[in-house]
Amino acid sequence: MTVAGGAGRYDDAEVAVATVRDADGTERQVRYLRQPQAAPPTAAPSGRTPTSHRVVAGDRLDTVTARYLGDPLAYWQVADANLVFALDDLIGPAAEGLVLEIPTPGV
To answer: What range defines the domain where residue 59 resides?
Structure first.
């Protein structure tokens, strides 16, 4: 079973079931989405140079993705390209100086 939808990050994620045991010994089943596997990095199409962005104070992930990908809601593509799932790892004071890999639009 997968989650139906459009072009979201988890739209085709598989729904799995795990059996867990509570502290009192009671077993129950829990449904969860399997974490999507990030695609391995690919070479940029012929004639295109891979893009990167160095994080500076005040950067926001939505404005960075709007600038490079033309869509502020494409932040999850940058997260996947950098193999992170916690967006705070990409932007903010702790991330200043970090070089983000920006995926090639349309690839």
So the answer is: 51-102
pLDDT of residue 85: 72
pLDDT tens by residue, 2-45: 444 555 666 667 788 888 898 999 999 988 777 655 555 554 55
Residues 30, 5 share a domain: yes
Structural domains counted in the chain: 2
Three-class SS of the chain: CECCCCCCCCCCCEEEEEEEECCCCCEEEEEEECCCCCCCCCCCCCCCCCEEEECCCCCCHHHHHHHHHCCHHHHHHHHHHCCCCCHHHCCCHHHCCCEEEECCCCC
Tell me, yes or no, whether 55 and 97 share the same domain. yes
